[in-house]
Amino acid sequence: MDIVVVLFCLILTGPTTLLVTAVSTGAPAKSDSFTPQDNYLLDCGATNQTTLPDKRVFLSDQNSTKFLSYSGRDIQVSVPSADVPLPIYRSAKVFVSDATYSFHMARPGWHWVRLHFYPVNNNEFNLQHSKFTVTLDTLVLLHEFSINDAKWFVKEYLVNVTTERFSLKFSPVKGSSAFINAIEVVSAPDILIADSGSALFPVAQQSGLSKYSYETVYRLNCGGPVISSQNDTLGRTWGSDGSFLKPGLAAKNVSVAPNIVSYPDGGSPLIAPPSVYASAIEMENANVTTPNFNVTWNLDIDSSFTYLVRLHFCDIVSKSLNDLYFNVYIGGKMAISGLDLSTETGGLAMAYYKDFIVNTSMVSPPLTVQVGPMNENTGMKNAILNGLEVLKINNSVNSLDGEFGVDGKTASNPTRGTVAAVGFAMMFGAFVGLGAMAVKWRKRPQDWRKRNSFSSWLLPLHAGDSSFMSSKTSLGSRKSNFYSSTTGLGRYFSFAELQEATKNWDPNAVIGVGGFGNVYIGEIDDGTQVAVKRGNPQSEQGINEFQTEIQMLSKLRHRHLVSLIGYCDENSEMILVYEFMSNGPLRDHLYGKNLPSLSWKQRLEICIGAARGLHYLHTGAAQGIIHRDVKTTNILLDDNFIAKMADFGLSKDAPTTEQTHVSTAVKGSFGYLDPEYFRKQQLTDKSDVYSFGVVLLEVLCARPALNPALPREQVNLAEWAMQWKRKGLLDKIIDPILAGVINPESMKKFAEAAEKCLAEYGVDRPTMGDVLWNLEYALQLQEASSQGKAEDENKVFAAAASPATVTPAPAAASTSDNRPISSPEESKNPAEVQVIDEHSGTAMFAQFAALNGR
Ligand SMILES: *[C@@H]1O[C@H](CO)[C@@H](O)[C@H](O)[C@H]1NC(C)=O
Ligand SMILES: *[C@@H]1O[C@H](CO)[C@@H](O)[C@H](O)[C@H]1NC(C)=O
Ligand SMILES: *[C@@H]1O[C@H](CO)[C@@H](O)[C@H](O)[C@H]1NC(C)=O
Ligand SMILES: *[C@@H]1O[C@H](CO)[C@@H](O)[C@H](O)[C@H]1NC(C)=O
Ligand SMILES: *[C@@H]1O[C@H](CO)[C@@H](O)[C@H](O)[C@H]1NC(C)=O
Ligand SMILES: *[C@@H]1O[C@H](CO)[C@@H](O)[C@H](O)[C@H]1NC(C)=O
Ligand SMILES: *[C@@H]1O[C@H](CO)[C@@H](O)[C@H](O)[C@H]1NC(C)=O
Ligand SMILES: *[C@@H]1O[C@H](CO)[C@@H](O)[C@H](O)[C@H]1NC(C)=O
Ligand SMILES: *[C@@H]1O[C@H](CO)[C@@H](O)[C@H](O)[C@H]1NC(C)=O
């Protein structure tokens, strides 16, 4: 082998490395149902109780003494149930003078008040043109309201009840009548309205929101179907947004299964159910030539009021973290600049919402909500919105309808804009209520949106790992926590020693840069070359990873893992010394660096070595370890092209079965990341298997896992290569150097292994042991063919090369596919490969050792 030896970096943490931490995925089960303490459901004018299809029982209001006091006559009107959308609309109570329902409240706080109006046909009254006012104590709900041409109306209010008793009063305009079909007065959870939101125009933080009363004007599930009240534990109906989308500009629906959606710590499905977050509107073509347009919703509103606009977001469109940045505008003004949901929530498919107070006296109707890509060249040119709620806030005379208060006072700002309550009234037939509800009242005092604002870099990677948590204060204690409690950390270096070794941290000696700091090449003692990784003490994230790596490496010794030689913690430094891998990362030998090409056999041996390293991580250590950042820059080659896995900074012990819901950090690199890991955010060793599958393709095709410069369908290697593989034409896209040299059977076996690794679901992927077996088999096939052609310039391979053994019958091959590999070096006892000599740490690894004992 005639290899130009190039000194290259030991550990590359390129700019593509993702380091974003999930905020406790699937932590303690979020209570997604709610039992209201006050739960009045009245079917007005009915002679008996009425059960809705969703099993809710509306009692008759006939026992007037309990609920109703009036100063006139009330009349029941009714029609056969076949004629109405819901059985509660069969009857109505009609008042020709003032009438009051009184309710006793078991618990103060937020309550839904829902009023159902359906103008029941009858001979005596023309309910369609009844005109009346409805007040709730001192709050005006409806002022001289008439249903007019609408078929029916459901009005929904959210009020903070502070008194033990409140009354709902119906007052017909002189000469007219008032009517009501059904009334709901139901407790709502405290968390529903936080006390503060971002005020727009002027931009400020506005508090005191819990003192206002609200009327739901719009509640839309963007890009998805109507969510009826029975699918929302709070009995809310979420309409479809299609009719509010501004036509002409391309927007499209996107949706995922609701069970993919998760809520960050402190979040709650009571804010909005998963089905709201599971669908969204996104830009039609996220990659059009002129991607700069906004997706716009136009909402008619009465501009004399102030509104609470609540926007729901959930990144169900990105393939990787921090890929989506967009702006949000309300009323044409910037509401959120560069919203990055990955950073806000720490993950994909995680629920997020934000409240805005919109004083519409500053904008003219219609109210617009817009999302559009940031004017930058980074990330995906896309923007999304999952849900949209617009709640009207009472005005200064405590009215939600018009400028007159209960006491006849007029609002100071009498300009009235377009009044349109269409949005909510259109959800015909969808109002079927607060279905089965269980689970206790649960107070959630903290506002989870605030908790999401901190930098994801600072999240404790090892929450629950006491040795890390207790090591925050001083290096002294850190030392005692890490170093003395672990073994095999090797030699202690003085700072001066390393300073000399790196020629006083010569910038020219830097061979790698990462979030943790720099990696230098150095020379110790008799001239042994080492890689010196010097942590940047300013970087909390770096120190976390640093500490992880020490702990990992101290436990792990394997011929296919980069070895730690020693460390230094003098002067607040965190320095690790590794064996130097003179041939650098595998990637450099595949493309981009003009190094001599590797032969197919070399590539197979390197893949086998890396697979052994991973297999050892998964199964060999006391507990399984997941590498989490398997990629071709983390596979390093020594003098003899022996592959070793590097960079355990991201490694984390595999969760045991009891702990699968423990919060995990979503980490990895673009192009290599297991899609299932993204969806579920549950880490398993099969995520490494997926990434390794990408590595195999990279080795075969000699191109990057992700190349944004290529045409769209070719950007992602895994997707592109699998398309060709399915067509049986994978050989069309392999590294041209290999064409003709590679044995077709060997390549077939290799490609099969890659394909299995890339299976959509982790359970369908092989273990690293299985992968290893397949790669060894591919190597044997290659060797047999080269030997047959007498082309092999290397050693003669004894048993393995004999045609009889390398061409097993298909049946035998398929059964052995599942056989886990265990060769002596996979031994669970690290001591076997642990021999670290203080003075020549690298020396013992420097010999070429043939693979698999040959
Ligand atoms: C009222 O409903 C109950 C149970 O649904 C039924 O047994 C009863 O006969 C009904 N009464 C009238 C007057 O319809
Ligand atoms: C009215 O109240 C009485 C006793 O309080 C009860 O037995 C009856 O079922 C109630 N009637 C209706 C229609 O709810
Ligand atoms: C309701 O209003 C009262 C008084 O303004 C306030 O103390 C209370 O916190 C509010 N309740 C909720 C659930 O916000
Ligand atoms: C989006 O979904 C909604 C509700 O399912 C549907 O009404 C609408 O037609 C869909 N729009 C497109 C462009 O597919
Ligand atoms: C609503 O719930 C019903 C069953 O309760 C289910 O069949 C239906 O798919 C749900 N719809 C949505 C939009 O989640
Ligand atoms: C998106 O809308 C905002 C506010 O209306 C506007 O300032 C911006 O120019 C729009 N962007 C594009 C690309 O039209
Ligand atoms: C809305 O703006 C007007 C004019 O600036 C102001 O008088 C009013 O108090 C504002 N309303 C709210 C709720 O902030
Ligand atoms: C809504 O009513 C409350 C009290 O009833 C009052 O304090 C508040 O100022 C009103 N809201 C606005 C925007 O004026
Ligand atoms: C987006 O389009 C540009 C120009 O057409 C292209 O270079 C780029 O690869 C595309 N990106 C994706 C992710 O498809």
TrEMBL record:
Residues 505-778 form the Protein kinase domain. Keywords: ATP-binding, Glycoprotein, Kinase, Membrane, Nucleotide-binding, Serine/threonine-protein kinase, Signal, Transferase, Transmembrane, Transmembrane helix. The keyword Membrane applies. Pfam families: Malectin_like (PF12819), PK_Tyr_Ser-Thr (PF07714). GO terms for molecular function: ATP binding; protein serine/threonine kinase activity; transmembrane receptor protein tyrosine kinase activity. It is a single-pass type I membrane protein. Residues 1-18 form the signal peptide. InterPro entries: ANXUR1/2-like (IPR045272), Kinase-like_dom_sf (IPR011009), Malectin-like_Carb-bd_dom (IPR024788), Prot_kinase_dom (IPR000719), Protein_kinase_ATP_BS (IPR017441), Ser-Thr/Tyr_kinase_cat_dom (IPR001245), Ser/Thr_kinase_AS (IPR008271). It comes from the Eukaryota. Residues 807-834 are annotated as: Disordered. GO terms for cellular component: plasma membrane; plasmodesma. ATP binds at K533. This is Protein kinase domain-containing protein. It comes from Escallonia rubra. The lineage of its organism: Eukaryota, Viridiplantae, Streptophyta, Embryophyta, Tracheophyta.
